[in-house]
Design goal:
Protein name: MarR family transcriptional regulator
CATH architecture of one domain: Orthogonal Bundle
Largest sheet: 3 strands, antiparallel
Number of strands: 3
Strand order of the largest sheet: 1-3-2
Helix content: 55-70%
Pfam families: MarR_2
Organism: Streptomyces auratus AGR0001
Radius of gyration: 18 Å
GO molecular function: DNA-binding transcription factor activity
Shape: globular
Order of helices and strands: HHEHHEEHH
CATH topology of one domain: Arc Repressor Mutant, subunit A
Structural class: mainly alpha
Number of helices: 6
Strand content: 5-15%
CATH class of one domain: Mainly Alpha
Length: 157
């Protein structure tokens, strides 16, 4: 029996859109993970935490990292442990809440972020940003904001 794929016209548009998002997320994440791991020994989950830290001018409460990333709180804790053991982040007691800690990048962490972010952007350019114009990117951003506003799970970037 010959195998064939369904075409878009045979699949309901909502299903096609959903699986398109899943496909894009999976393929792009795997591509970035391979590039970051090869060039910087930095899994994409570690990069996500570093990205959040690099985007904040102040130390970030560990609980906020758990609520902001696509990782569970226990995963964030393990990633921060690994980053700390590499000298990329430091934990400090919170000035606002004695029961919590805040996390910030070290100078080495900032440097690695700059290098890894350049790798990530170069990796994505031929399969994402170079293929989409500003209108496409704005449309994707609008879709993402609508989905996030619906709180269909964890918050994202």
């Amino acid at each position: 029996m010959a195998k064939r794929k369904l075409t878009q016209t045979e699949m309901p548009v909502a299903d096609h859109a959903f699986y398109g998002l899943v496909w894009a997320g999976t393929v792009l994440t795997e591509r970035v993970d391979r590039a970051l791991s090869k060039a910087h020994d930095l899994p994409v989950s570690w990069f996500e935490v570093i990205l959040w830290l690099a985007s904040s001018p102040d130390p970030v409460p560990a609980s906020v990292l758990g609520n902001s990333t696509m990782l569970s709180r226990s995963q964030v804790s393990r990633v921060v442990d690994a980053l700390q053991s590499r000298g990329l982040v430091v934990r400090t007691p919170s000035a606002r809440d004695a029961r919590s800690v805040e996390v910030s990048l070290t100078p080495e962490g900032h440097q690695l972020f700059k290098e890894a972010d350049a790798t990530r952007r170069a990796c994505l350019a031929p399969v994402f940003t170079d293929l989409l114009d500003e209108e496409d990117l704005e449309a994707l951003s609008t879709v993402w904001k609508k989905l996030k506003a619906g709180k269909g799970g964890q918050d994202g970037p």
